[in-house]
Amino acid sequence: MFENSTKTSLDSFGEFNLIKKLTENYVSKKPNLILGIGDDAALVKPNPDKLQVYSTNFMVENINFDIAYTPLKHLGYKAVVASISDIYAMNATPKFIMVSIAMSSKYTLEALEELYEGIYAACEKYEVDLIGGDTNTSPQGLSLSLTACGEVDENKYVTRAGCKMNDLLCVSGDLGGAYLGHQLLEREKRVFVANPEMQPDLEGYDYIVGRQLKPEARKDVVELLDSLNIIPTSMIDISNGLASELKHLAIKSNVGFSIFEEKLPVDTQTLQLASEFHLDATMCALNGGEDYELLFTIGQSDFEKIKSNMDITIIGYATDQANICQLITPSGSQFDIKAQGWN
Ligand SMILES: [Mg+2]
């Protein structure tokens, strides 16, 4: 798809010129950044009142993304979102990112510029500064490694450990949409491969396709919790699926969870497409990944502050049955939740 002779091959560009070309118009914003891109390393003056928070995320073509239906601009955006989502999951604010890219010769300069357009768009939206990275060639495909750095008040960071029995389990947004968006894009790709005359039929599913291709990180939720004076007792972002993240919270906090099936927030497009694919919407909500919502627990005393918020759903509570996570159906049956995750 990139083998167009009017495009610029990366071989004709040295690494120095490439980085210069990709970053020449970029203006960094953070006042405590002493030196950004362009030297051997970046220089940052840390805020003495804060803890520094670091996280890394690695994405590999045909493992984590398919370039056949992922626009490169979206991919760049999503890579930033995935990396800063982990910073928000610590109740922290992302400040800086570093991006390293390895790509094969099928990627042209124009393709890489499109990828960076997405990276810059996410930097702008989430107010983070790109402060460095590296580029290299790869015998096959495209790989992206992003390191995010953020900060948090010493008394406000939130880990996966700290949830206590009877704490309320909350989730932001809705679940399963990114998974069904992926299923839909895969189906349309199969149709296209079988008959290239066919145009993809994504009509009516713009929301869930967007959930897959251009997810957002929940900056707003971290800000909301702060404004409500709520510090969650534990928190994690949903990158692999609710079931798998729930297990992480249970193991680290040494509690169990009971969640109510009818409380799981699922969008109508997700429900509709699940039925079209003969998939169980609850299973999609439990095991579909890449929603990048926040899953967190709060003490019961914080219930009043959060109960009327439309974007936060209380889906269950913590029990003293260590590591046992159960789904309670509307009829009252209980099932053990297995962490399946999702590729
Ligand atoms: Mg995470």
Strands, helices and their partners?
Layout: H1 15-23, E1 33-35, E2 43-44, E3 50-60, H2 72-88, E4 93-103, H3 109-126, E5 129-137, E6 142-153, E7 168-172, H4 177-194, H5 206-213, H6 219-227, E8 234-237, H7 242-253, E9 256-260, H8 268-276, H9 281-287, E10 294-298, H10 303-306, E11 312-319, E12 325-328, E13 334-336
Parallel strand pairs: 4-5, 9-12
Antiparallel strand pairs: 1-2, 3-6, 4-6, 7-10, 7-11, 8-10, 9-11, 12-13
Helix pairs in contact: 2-3, 4-5, 4-8
Bound molecules: magnesium ion.
What are the defining features of this structure?
seven-stranded mixed sheet, single chain, globular, 343 residues, 60s Ribosomal Protein L30, Chain: A, alpha+beta, four-stranded mixed sheet, binds magnesium ion, Phosphoribosyl-aminoimidazole Synthetase, Chain A, domain 2
Write a short abstract of this structure:
By secondary structure, this protein is an alpha+beta fold.
> What order do the strands of the largest sheet run in, or round the barrel if closed?
8-10-7-11-9-12-13
Name of the level-1 CATH class of the largest domain: Alpha Beta
Query: How many strands?
Result: 13
Number of domains: 2
Could you name the CATH topology of the largest domain?
Answer: Phosphoribosyl-aminoimidazole Synthetase, Chain A, domain 2
Radius of gyration: 21 Å
Order of helices and strands: HEEEHEHEEEHHHEHEHHEHEEE
Question: Distance N terminus to C terminus?
Answer: 25 Å
Query: What is the CATH superfamily of the largest domain?
Result: PurM-like C-terminal domain
Q: How would a crystallographer describe the biggest sheet?
A: 7 strands, mixed
User: What does the overall shape look like?
Assistant: globular
Number of helices: 10
CATH architecture of the largest domain: Alpha-Beta Complex
**Stretches with pLDDT under 50, minimum 5 residues:** none
Structural class: alpha+beta
